[in-house]
Amino acid sequence: MMHQALLIATMLLALPACGAGREAAGGERWSQAERAQLASMSLARLPAPPPDPSNAVADQPAAAALGRQLFADARLSRDGKVSCASCHDPQRQFQDDRALGRGVGTGQRRTMSVPAAAHSPWLFWDGRKDSLWSQALGPLEDGLEHGSNRTRLVQQLRSHHRPGYEAVFGPFPPLSGLPADAAPAGTPDERQAWSRMSEAQRDSVNRVFANLGKALAAYERSLAYGASRFDRYVQALQAGDAAGQQQLSRDEVQGLRLFIGKAQCSTCHNGPLFSDQHFHNTGVPPRDPARPDRGRAPAIAKVQADEFNCLGRYSDAPAEACAELRFMADQDPAMEGAFKTPGLRNIALRPPYMHAGQLATLDEVLAHYRRAPAAAAGQTELARPGAAVAGRQPIRLSDDEARQLIAFLHSLSGPVEERPSGGGAR
């Protein structure tokens, strides 16, 4: 039922842009190279999510079913009021429409959307996690998000989800004698309680905690984007279907031409998800100029030291399967102040924008790129008039061109779908 309600809601959100009042386009001339680039951005070119060798249950339906229950369970929070779905609302593109995430407190960054996250090698705006299951663990213990702690979470999992858990992971380990509240990075009292536990107890709790994340990840892997008007336009273009090409208006087609050309958007926003899955500094002004967010730079050490990373003892992957982590560049000065390129599918449906929701509308986003301000931390990759930046030119767009580019971005809206586990093939 949740799947059906979600599909209907997202389809309703996607429909209005197809309504009357648009001047339809057809027969637009594209070069062979441009046609190939447009095809590369079509959802038809998106493969199934890559396997996650660090999560042995990633594609098991029973794990996804357990993860779906856990995703909506507010008992897994300090005050019993916050679930994963509180911020990643299925009725809001699995985000919350807020500039800053709000759990038991208010966070420092914007809530990221979940669909298609399984395609990303790095999670969070700064990439401090290297798998969906490891990412899912972070908010549970974060003092501003779920605000819970490790032993409490494990005991709640056993109390409320034991049959589903044991069907996937086998019997719970002995957990007698555990303190009610203990965690390695919690409050002083929680840390002290954690230090008094035996090594065997800590290992058992960590393993169940990791399995909690793996079940959540199995559910999140099932969330995907459905086709947009842009995808149907590209399909019609490839088929020589002039009538089908009227999926996009003339303004939207001109915006698409700007997107892959003069506006340079596809330099970073490329591929079927409109993201290169990398990190860039584009000089977005920080919320607190006195304390600019350094983004990716400090996150590199965090993911390397994370006990729940691909190389950790709770990962199911052999070391040779952890190439992203093993060969990660960790001395790149360009990562100072850099943030992950967000995908642009359904982007018009989920303002505000940027890593801390600094820009309220797409008009403000375009104005930022046209202005190309200096970065508060590190160096912006955007070229400014008179300043040489390798591979970049100043983004010079007229007001009318900015309007057309935004019109095109609206054509990327489509449904969010929950797909069966077991490979996620489209």
The description of the largest β-sheet is: 2 strands, antiparallel
Order of helices and strands: HHHHHHHHEHHEHHEHHE
Which secondary-structure class do the elements indicate? Answer: mainly alpha
Mean pLDDT: 92
Per DSSP, the total helix count is 14
Shape: globular
The radius of gyration computed from the alpha-carbon positions, rounded to a whole number of angstroms, is 22 Å
Would you count the extended β strands for me? 4
Helix content: 25-40%
> How much β-strand is present in the residues?
under 5%
Strand order of the largest sheet: 1-4
Main attributes of the structure:
single chain; 426 residues; mainly alpha; two-stranded antiparallel sheet; heme
Overall description:
Mean pLDDT is 92; it is low at 1-21. Helix content is 37%, strand content 2%. α3 packs across α8 (199-220). The chain has 426 residues and is an all-alpha fold. Strands 1-4 form a two-stranded antiparallel sheet. It has a two-stranded antiparallel sheet with strand order 2-3. The protein is globular, with a radius of gyration of 22 Å. The protein has 14 helices and four strands.
